[in-house]
Design a protein that fits this description.
Elements (H helix, E strand, L loop, with lengths): L2 H10 L2 H13 L2 H11 L10 H13 L5 H10 L7 H10 L2 H16 L19 E9 L16 E3 L2 E7 L4 E8 L6 H15 L4 E5 L8 H5 L5 E5 L6 E3 L6 E4 L5 E9 L8 E8 L7 E5 L9 H8 L3 H12 L11 H27 L11 H18 L2 H7 L6 H12 L28 E3 H18 L1
Parallel strand pairs: 1-5, 2-12, 5-6
Antiparallel strand pairs: 1-3, 3-4, 6-11, 7-9, 8-9, 9-10, 10-11
Helix pairs in contact: 2-13, 2-15, 3-7, 4-5, 7-12, 11-12
Length: about 475
């Protein structure tokens, strides 16, 4: 049967692949990628291998080839879609500026957010906080960089790439902004002055910043409460709390019968200029570590402690994001060998994660009373991979690309997604609910030794400069 006759039959039987390719065509138009490159490229430049072609190569490596850049580059070469040599593709990844990685992730994510169904809610926010945009902040060290670069090969232990700090919206289930440092051993706090303004530029309205205890010092509350925003941070024991003797503590019980103690007072010593008046919420958890939060939402009638504890516990959402981009979207297999390459792959994995959130939301919307958070991203992604692999095995990639050259409006994309995904539901997509959680298995501890690629390369550059100066 001629491919032209077979194509419509196969495409009709692969609705998830069709929906994914429709999204890719809309989000990753070469003209749009050219604009992203020009805006965020810094001092980098394009030669034979354009940024739009490079994006396609990395996309195929992550989605079709289990994180193998070599497989993606060689197959593209076989089909005439790689205009240069394989090494040139690796070289472009090694040198890609961090500014371009961040701009690519944030600009594409802005388009993704506009496609989400309005009724889709991954996490529900308590009524007292509905007027705020809840933003969760957390950092991730990018691990398991391959020791391909000569200065790194002799280093003991594992090798780490860059560090990213991500802003995540739990209601939409989307990561929307990011800052990065080439040094994977950098403290998350170092990235805050860049991450917070980047997130504010993408997220409008009054914001409630939620963060773990590594962000609890005397500087972050000031940064996070600018522009009328508010903060909810888990208190570190290094940051001392001094109770206000004029305002007595209040004790209550949460829904599980655990004791909650609320106090008002200051973080920081009396003579400290950065001292700040806060509300302190202490949840006592027998058999588990207590949770202590500090916030500038001082009114416990308007903002009940139970609501703030509920919002803080949505932090697990961003941990889930990091787990999925590592295990599902192949961040555990790093293609590049430099910090810059690792940051771009992390940014791309976050784009794939966000794209799958859109598909998941429309799949959930096709079912009556199906909450988005009960639909498995992993199961959907497995079927997306299976269908895309079937298409790419049967048809040349250039032919597939030609099917999706039509420029669609946002409304047309939404209509097509609704139509394509209305009939793909299977009970396998519903998450299993563990009524009796499995006991945690203790993993054997490996060597804790690790090396930052950035620090090794900087030391090598200093050594070369010193040698050159001496001659």
């Amino acid at each position: 049967m001629p491919l032209e006759v077979l194509a419509p039959l196969v495409v009709e039987r692969t609705p998830l692949a069709n929906a994914t390719l429709t999204l890719w065509s809309y989000l990753l138009q070469p003209s749009a990628l050219d604009k992203i490159f020009e805006q965020h490229r810094g001092r980098s430049f394009e030669d034979i291998l354009t940024f739009s072609t490079f994006v396609e190569l990395i996309r195929d490596a992550l989605v079709l080839h289990k994180g193998s850049g070599l497989q993606s580059f060689k197959r593209a070469q076989e089909q005439g879609n790689l205009p240069t040599c394989v090494e040139a593709a690796y070289g472009k990844l090694r040198r890609i500026p961090i500014s371009l990685s961040l701009g690519f992730f944030e600009d594409v994510t802005e388009l993704i957010g506009a496609l989400m169904p309005k009724e889709a809610q991954v996490a529900r926010i308590p009524a007292s906080l509905v007027g705020m945009r809840v933003i969760i902040l957390d950092g991730k060290q990018i691990k398991k960089v391959a020791k391909r670069l000569k200065p790194v090969r002799s280093k003991a232990g594992r090798v780490v790439g860059g560090k990213i700090l991500v802003a995540y919206l739990p209601t939409e289930g989307l990561a929307v902004a990011m800052a990065a440092d080439p040094d994977g051993e950098a403290n998350d706090i170092r990235l805050m002055p860049e991450a917070v303004p980047r997130a504010r530029a993408r997220i409008s309205g009054v914001r409630l910043w939620v963060a773990d205890r590594q962000f609890c010092d005397l500087n972050q509350p000031t940064l996070l409460s600018e522009q009328g925003d508010h903060f909810l941070i888990r208190r570190s024991l290094k940051t001392h709390f001094h109770a206000d003797p004029q305002r007595p503590a209040q004790t209550s019980l949460d829904a599980q019968g655990r004791t909650v103690i609320e106090q008002w007072g200051w973080i920081g010593a009396e003579k400290e200029k950065r001292r700040r008046y806060v509300r302190h919420i202490h949840l006592i958890r027998p058999g588990e570590e207590d949770v202590m939060l500090v916030t500038d939402l001082l009114d416990n009638q308007q903002y009940p402690a139970s609501d703030l504890l509920t919002v803080y516990l949505t932090r697990w959402g961003i941990e889930r994001v990091f787990q999925q981009i590592t295990e599902v979207f192949e961040l555990k297999h790093l293609i590049g060998s430099t910090p810059e390459g690792s940051v771009f792959q992390a940014a791309f994995c976050l784009v794939l994660y966000n794209l799958l959130q859109v598909i998941r939301a429309y799949v959930a919307a096709s079912q009556v009373d199906m909450p988005v958070n009960l639909v498995s991203v992993e199961q959907i992604f497995l079927d997306v991979q299976r269908e895309l692999t079937a298409l790419t095995e049967l048809f040349p990639s250039r032919m597939i690309a030609d099917w999706f050259t039509e420029e669609l409006s946002r409304e047309e994309v939404i209509a097509r997604l609704k139509n394509l995904l209305s009939g793909v539901w299977t009970p396998r997509y519903r998450k299993a609910i563990n009524k009796k959680p499995r006991p945690k298995v203790k993993k054997a501890k490996g060597s804790g030794a690790h090396t930052s690629v950035h620090k090794v390369l900087e030391a090598e550059r200093r050594k070369k400069r010193k040698t050159a100066g001496g001659t």
